[in-house]
């Protein structure tokens, strides 16, 4: 829309071109390129420093009324998903139906870490909403979650059969994230052989 | 039906903006007066239609028309009326509408106050403004239409972000936009001057008052934003170097450089190329700020709805406006000429140094803001750049600039002698030094950073006073001190006031940084905590209903040496369906100190995590900014600008002659 301005300005009768005048334009263009690249990326894709690392050493008791707790050893031997949740967390309510869907399909075991919850509240939540988890560790103090690098609930981890964290999803799991990222990754990890014989 | 009228008015405004962008520019190039005149009428028409659009959207908020998606997403019927009105600009779409309304307002103001300029120049200015406006109107209509319907209409809306339900929200965005958009006027003047090939002192004089007004609004906007963050976010801080704060601060720094550089160009004809470049940069940086806030490329506490399509649009628009302007600058730069010459030690050289420092400061804040983005784009990982970087870079850059505030106004144009300057300023420096040595002890303990900060603040004040005293002593005006005081121009007093405002700000920031104390503790009912010599006792906790929230309120009685000082009522508010409770800090405002109590998490029914701050002289920060803004305002009301405006119909005014000369020379 400023075409007419530019064409008028481009003709400089009798003047010699001084390249110095173009420096501001050049700086701006470099900045614009970076802004353009920035547009294509999602700043909320925060990689966890734990990705590619083995899951931390932890051992959590079951939640009230449950029988199976969760510990490091439970995450070795097969590909699994670990979901950090709490009854007080609104976004967890949002993603819960999707977690129930994972359980129904039965393609991959889903484990839970119940983060900073009161035992009664956690039980009431599972009774009311349904229990999608194979194993649940009750992290009442939140100590284990710190080792996992959790800084918001919910968070969801994909663990490979060596017990290494392969992926971390921050926030409520969405149908798109599940379809495009999490489940394809699970399928891929399940196909691959264990890197180190156990 | 009414929102459709608004939508339609916006489309008409776009058509008028395009006409305003095309005809006057062509008219000015060809010398066709009729075409040049198109600018004035289309500007008025455009303002009218945007005002209609804005009015209909406001009406939709007032009557709770939830069949509009934008209203339903940002307001509900429980929201008090003043916040329903503020909600018009509480989110992206409406704030862009406010933006174009303000742009159209500035444009109309140009048509009103431009009779002393040659018609050809005005036509170019209006043309550039029209093109900018057309870009923003297209942005609104194609990516951010606030008039989209939501059928069937929900019975209730989703409500405004509770953080924004505050009087600061009524004022902060309009002020900020007045500033951002106001710099488009300086930009348009610069482009018009480049197009006409006449970069003379007349251009600088016409541009100066507009630029200063924009700077005043931006200063107020930045200050209000900081004040709002201080009392509303509950962290007790007043500046966080958040990307969105930086987005307003970078153009402010560039704008500050611009108003100084314009002074040199007007008085001495020097720095012409640099001034034009700054005028282009200041508005460009405002646009970059808009891009950063609304495209979602940076994460920030400011929760604007983000959308990549909007980011792409703004980036393309940015490319056309800024790229086009800089290309024009590049093609004309070699013809700009140098203007009056000056010595290495002169007022010009000091203003040049001030400009370089401000520009480098703006550049480094921009760098720090964009650095995470750049690293990410290069695949080098995610980082965040925070306070340590900005303080490490910004303070050393600004320290010499602050020192120059004292020296610059005392220096002579063209050539000045350093020994002479030193003699004239020796008392100012001595008084400043003594103040800097004494204040830390008066405040309760030596601290080198505090002493340095106070030295700068005191130096600015004493050297400004020294300048005033010298003026009075050498004044040719006969009569008493009042007559001598009255002989100085308003722009002189404006400058002095603004500079002392900087000193007040530095003093506040230094003292609060050096001597604030805070405690973060568990408090149960009956507990007493001592902070900064005050005893805070949590007397009780009660549930208090508000218009659209429920608050848990604490009664905190404050005593000092056994005497009651005040009772404070910090709150934690829960708004409607939003589960996230909002902190409403209680602040006991005072000139010498603020007491600040803010609730954190509720640990059990009678116990809260509480943060208590004692902040000495924190209010000087905003007082300083207010003084800077008032100083700018005073300068704008200088007599010579009023003469220029009032005498347009009496063609004897010097500015009119200059204007006519400029037009005739083409």
What is this structure, in a nutshell?
The complex is a heterodimer of chains A (198) and B (666). Chain A has 198 residues and is of the alpha/beta class.
Topology:
The complex is a heterodimer of chains A (198) and B (666).
Chain A: H1 3-10, H2 23-39, E1 59-60, E2 70-71, E3 80-85, H3 90-105, E4 110-115, H4 119-129, E5 135-139, H5 143-147, E6 155-159, E7 165-170, H6 175-191
Parallel strand pairs in A: 3-4, 4-5
Antiparallel strand pairs in A: 1-2, 3-6, 6-7
Chain B: H1 2-30, H2 33-62, H3 69-74, H4 81-86, H5 92-112, H6 119-143, H7 167-196, H8 201-232, H9 243-268, H10 272-295, H11 308-332, H12 347-377, H13 387-407, H14 418-443, H15 448-474, H16 481-487, H17 490-515, E1 517-524, E2 528-531, E3 534-545, E4 549-560, E5 563-568, E6 571-575, E7 582-584, E8 586-588, E9 593-604, E10 607-616, H18 620-636, H19 639-646, H20 654-664
Antiparallel strand pairs in B: 1-10, 2-3, 3-4, 4-5, 4-6, 6-7, 8-9, 9-10
Protein model, in words:
- The complex is a heterodimer of chains A (198) and B (666).
- Chain A has 198 residues and is α/β, with parallel strands linked by helices.
- Chain A has helices spanning 3-10, 23-39, 90-105, 119-129, 143-147, 175-191, and strands spanning 59-60, 70-71, 80-85, 110-115, 135-139, 155-159, 165-170.
- Chain A has a 5-stranded mixed β-sheet with strand order 5-4-3-6-7. A two-stranded antiparallel ribbon of chain A has the order 1-2.
- In chain A, strand 4 (110-115), helix 4 and strand 5 (135-139) form a beta-alpha-beta unit.
- Helix content of chain B is 64%, strand content 11%.
- Chain B has 20 helices and 10 strands.
- Chain B has helices spanning 2-30, 33-62, 69-74, 81-86, 92-112, 119-143, 167-196, 201-232, 243-268, 272-295, 308-332, 347-377, 387-407, 418-443, 448-474, 481-487, 490-515, 620-636, 639-646, 654-664; strands spanning 517-524, 528-531, 534-545, 549-560, 563-568, 571-575, 582-584, 586-588, 593-604, 607-616.
- In chain B, strand 4 and strand 5 form a beta hairpin.
- In chain B, helix 1 (2-30) runs antiparallel to helix 2 (33-62), helix 2 runs parallel beside helix 6 (119-143) and helix 14 crosses helix 15.
- Chain B is globular, with a radius of gyration of 27 Å.
- The A-B interface holds A 1-2, 4-6, 8-12, 15-18, 20-22, 24-25, 28-29, 31-32, 34-41, 43-44, 46-47, 90 and B 21-22, 25-26, 29, 128, 131, 134-135, 191, 194-195, 277, 280-281, 284, 288, 291, 295-299, 308, 311-312, 315, 318-335, 370, 372-374, 376-377, 381-382, 579.
């Amino acid at each position: 829309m400023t075409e007419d301005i530019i064409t008028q300005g481009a003709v400089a009768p009798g003047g010699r071109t001084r390249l110095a005048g173009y420096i501001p334009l050049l700086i701006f263009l470099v900045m614009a390129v970076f802004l353009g690249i920035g547009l294509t990326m999602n700043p909320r894709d925060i990689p966890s420093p734990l990705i590619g690392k083995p899951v931390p050493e932890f051992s959590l008791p079951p939640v009230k009324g449950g029988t199976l707790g969760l510990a490091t050893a439970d995450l070795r031997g097969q590909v699994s998903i670990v979901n950090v949740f709490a009854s007080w967390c609104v976004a967890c309510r949002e993603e819960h139906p999707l977690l129930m869907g994972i359980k129904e399909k039965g393609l991959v075991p889903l484990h839970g870490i119940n983060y900073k919850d009161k035992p009664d509240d956690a039980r009431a939540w599972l009774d009311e909403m349904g229990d999608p988890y194979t194993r649940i560790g009750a992290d009442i103090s939140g100590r284990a979650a710190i080792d996992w690098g959790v800084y918001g609930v919910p968070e969801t981890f994909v663990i490979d059969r060596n017990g290494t964290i392969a992926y971390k999803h921050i926030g409520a799991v969405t149908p798109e994230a599940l379809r495009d990222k999490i489940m394809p990754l699970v399928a891929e990890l399940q196909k691959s052989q264990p890197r180190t014989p156990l | 039906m009414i929102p459709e009228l608004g939508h339609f008015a916006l489309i008409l405004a776009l058509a008028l903006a395009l006409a305003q962008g095309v005809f006057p520019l062509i008219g000015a190039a060809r010398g066709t007066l009729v075409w040049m005149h198109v600018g004035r009428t289309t500007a008025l028409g455009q303002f009218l239609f945007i005002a209609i659009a804005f009015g209909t959207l406001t009406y939709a908020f007032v009557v709770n028309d939830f069949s509009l998606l934008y209203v339903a997403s940002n307001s509900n019927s429980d929201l008090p009326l003043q916040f329903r009105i503020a909600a018009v600009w509480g989110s992206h779409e409406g704030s862009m509408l406010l933006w174009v309304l303000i742009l159209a307002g500035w444009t109309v103001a140009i048509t009103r106050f431009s009779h002393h300029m040659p018609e050809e120049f005005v036509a170019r200015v209006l043309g550039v403004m029209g093109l900018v406006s057309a870009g923003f109107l297209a942005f609104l209509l194609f990516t951010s239409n606030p008039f989209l319907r939501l059928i069937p209409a929900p019975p209730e809306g989703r409500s405004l972000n509770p953080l924004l339900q505050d009087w600061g929200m009524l004022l902060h965005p309009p002020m900020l936009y007045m500033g951002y958009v106001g710099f488009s006027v300086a930009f348009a003047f610069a482009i018009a001057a480049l197009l006409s090939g006449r970069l003379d002192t007349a251009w600088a004089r016409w541009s100066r008052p507009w630029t200063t007004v924009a700077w005043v609004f931006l200063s107020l906007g930045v200050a209000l934003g900081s004040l709002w963050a201080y009392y509303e976010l509950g962290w007790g801080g007043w500046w966080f170097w958040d990307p969105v704060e930086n987005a307003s601060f970078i153009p402010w720094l560039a704008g500050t450089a611009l108003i100084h550089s314009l002074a040199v160009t007007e008085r001495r004809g020097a720095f012409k190329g640099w001034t034009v470049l700054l005028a282009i940069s200041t508005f460009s940086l405002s646009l970059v700020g808009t891009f950063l806030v609304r495209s979602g490329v940076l994460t920030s506490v400011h929760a604007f709805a983000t959308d990549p399509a909007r980011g792409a649009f703004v980036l393309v628009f940015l490319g056309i406006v800024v790229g086009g302007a800089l290309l024009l600058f590049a093609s004309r730069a070699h013809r700009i000429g140098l203007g009056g010459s000056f010595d290495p030690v002169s007022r010009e050289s000091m203003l040049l140094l001030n400009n370089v420092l401000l520009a480098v400061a703006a550049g480094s804040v921009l760098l720090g803001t964009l650095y995470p983005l750049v690293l990410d784009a290069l695949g080098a990982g995610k980082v965040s750049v925070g306070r340590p970087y900005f303080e490490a870079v910004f303070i050393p850059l600004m320290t010499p600039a602050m020192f120059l505030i004292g020296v610059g106004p005392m220096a002579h144009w063209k050539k000045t002698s350093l020994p002479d300057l030193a003699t004239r300023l020796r008392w100012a420096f001595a008084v400043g030094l003594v103040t800097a040595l004494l204040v830390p002890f008066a405040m309760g303990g030596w601290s080198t950073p505090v002493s340095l900060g106070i030295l700068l603040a005191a130096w600015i004040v004493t050297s400004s006073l020294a300048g005033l005293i010298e003026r009075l002593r050498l004044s040719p005006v006969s009569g008493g001190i009042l007559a001598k005081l009255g002989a100085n121009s308003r722009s002189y007093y404006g400058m002095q006031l603004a500079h002392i405002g900087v000193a007040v700000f530095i003093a506040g920031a230094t003292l609060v940084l050096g001597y604030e104390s805070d405690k973060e503790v568990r408090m149960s009912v009956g507990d007493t905590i001592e902070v900064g010599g005050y005893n805070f006792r949590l007397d009780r906790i009660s549930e208090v209903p508000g218009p659209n929230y429920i608050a848990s309120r604490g009664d905190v009685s404050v005593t000092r040496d056994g005497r009651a000082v005040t009772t404070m009522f910090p709150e934690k508010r829960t708004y409607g369906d939003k589960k996230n409770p909002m902190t409403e800090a209680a602040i006991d405002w005072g000139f010498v100190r603020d007491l600040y109590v803010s609730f954190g998490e509720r640990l059990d029914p009678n116990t809260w995590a509480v943060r208590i701050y004692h902040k000495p002289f924190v209010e000087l920060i905003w007082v300083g900014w207010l003084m800077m803004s008032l100083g700018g305002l005073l300068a704008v009301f200088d007599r010579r600008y009023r003469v220029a405006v009032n005498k347009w119909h009496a063609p004897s005014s010097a500015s009119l002659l200059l204007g006519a000369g400029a037009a005739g020379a083409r």
